[in-house]
């Protein structure tokens, strides 16, 4: 961490969280809402919470080593950290595609998709960080000019998934996950669509429950505000972790990260066994005092742990 105190209220701060290095310019140390004067320098894998510190920033800088994905559905979870809102607002049905398949984007693709603002070669990233800290200012124009000293234009490779949007829109606009898979299978048989095979394989081995929850969440996100999406994602997270309709998230974690046998046993085992009424349950609003409270002031922050929260005492009902 690099820190220079400007005065008692303002700091220049560099802190790395999940491969995302944040440079905070002329901001109070205690932040309630992330400021537009934060620059994210992203090197390596950026997923989940790390990605949520990259995409919303006024300036987010990526390199040739940056990798972004939202693979949560594959383990029985859902697209969280605000990404049911962010992905749903991408062009066409790219949101459904990335959320359901967990397909990866590299640095150049992130800039092209509008999920990052600048591409800087890795060899120049350290110099950019030093340049930003030396500014000692949060002036937006000054920050932008400094980044553009190091940034380069991006050109997508022909095989980039972003160049496949017509196929993606055709398939991922379907009403259900089953229909999406069927349409994707049909496209996979056509000449020149060899890229679909590996993506389709991953989609088919994902948690049926996770896929169904995620598809509905993305489509709700398209019509929601960001706070509404965050509250919805909070409900989904609590209900999935409480296993009110399935224990897939724990089975997915076991199979992929603990035992690493890559052989999860999903329950229910297939899409046609995941009923609408079950999916409805995880989307049900909580009582008002249990809903996510979006912090606007410091006193609204929750600093306890789950075990001491009202959620720990909730009863699971069949």
From TrEMBL:
Keywords recorded for this protein, A-Z: Hydrolase
Region of interest (Disordered), ranges: 298-318
Residue ranges of every copy of the Enoyl-CoA hydratase/isomerase domain listed in the record: 37-283
Catalysed reaction, written as an equation: 3-hydroxy-2-methylpropanoyl-CoA + H2O = 3-hydroxy-2-methylpropanoate + CoA + H(+)
An MF annotation (GO) of this entry: 3-hydroxyisobutyryl-CoA hydrolase activity
GO biological process: L-valine catabolic process
The UniProt record lists the keyword Ligase: no
Enzyme class: hydrolase
The EC number(s) this enzyme carries: 3.1.2.4
Pathway(s) of this molecule: Amino-acid degradation; L-valine degradation
Family according to the record: Belongs to the enoyl-CoA hydratase/isomerase family.
PANTHER family in the record: 3-HYDROXYISOBUTYRYL-COA HYDROLASE-LIKE PROTEIN 5, 3-HYDROXYISOBUTYRYL-COA HYDROLASE-RELATED
Name listed for the protein in its UniProt record: 3-hydroxyisobutyryl-CoA hydrolase
Source organism of the structure: Prunus avium
């Amino acid at each position: 961490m690099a820190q220079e105190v400007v005065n008692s209220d303002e700091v220049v701060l560099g802190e790395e969280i999940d491969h995302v290095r944040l440079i905070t310019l002329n901001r109070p140390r205690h932040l309630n809402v992330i400021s537009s004067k934060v620059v994210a320098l992203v090197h390596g894998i950026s997923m989940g919470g790390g990605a949520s510190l990259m995409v919303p920033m006024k300036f987010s800088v990526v390199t040739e080593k940056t990798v972004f994905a939202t693979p949560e559905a594959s383990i029985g979870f859902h697209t969280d950290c605000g990404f049911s809102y962010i992905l749903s607002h991408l062009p066409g049905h790219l949101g459904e595609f990335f959320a359901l398949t967990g397909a990866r984007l590299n640095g150049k693709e992130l800039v092209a998709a509008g999920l990052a603002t600048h591409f800087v070669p890795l060899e120049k990233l350290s110099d950019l960080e030093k340049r930003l800290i030396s500014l000692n200012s949060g002036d937006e124009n000054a920050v932008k000019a400094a980044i553009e000293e190091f940034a380069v234009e991006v050109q997508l490779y022909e095989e980039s998934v972003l160049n496949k949007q017509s196929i993606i829109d055709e398939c991922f606009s379907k009403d259900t996950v089953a229909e999406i898979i069927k349409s994707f299978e049909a496209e996979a048989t056509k000449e020149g669509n060899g890229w679909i095979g590996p993506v389709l394989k991953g989609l088919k081995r994902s948690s049926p429950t996770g896929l169904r929850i995620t598809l509905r969440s993305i489509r709700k996100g398209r019509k929601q505000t960001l706070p509404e999406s965050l509250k919805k994602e909070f409900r989904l997270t609590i209900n999935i972790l409480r296993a009110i309709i399935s224990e897939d998230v724990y089975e997915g974690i076991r199979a992929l990260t603990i035992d690493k046998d890559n052989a999860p046993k999903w329950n229910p085992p297939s899409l046609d066994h995941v009923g609408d009424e079950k999916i409805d349950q995880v989307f049900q609003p909580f009582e008002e005092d249990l809903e996510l409270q979006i912090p606007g002031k410091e006193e609204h922050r929750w600093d306890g742990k789950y075990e001491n929260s009202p959620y720990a005492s909730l009863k699971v009902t069949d």
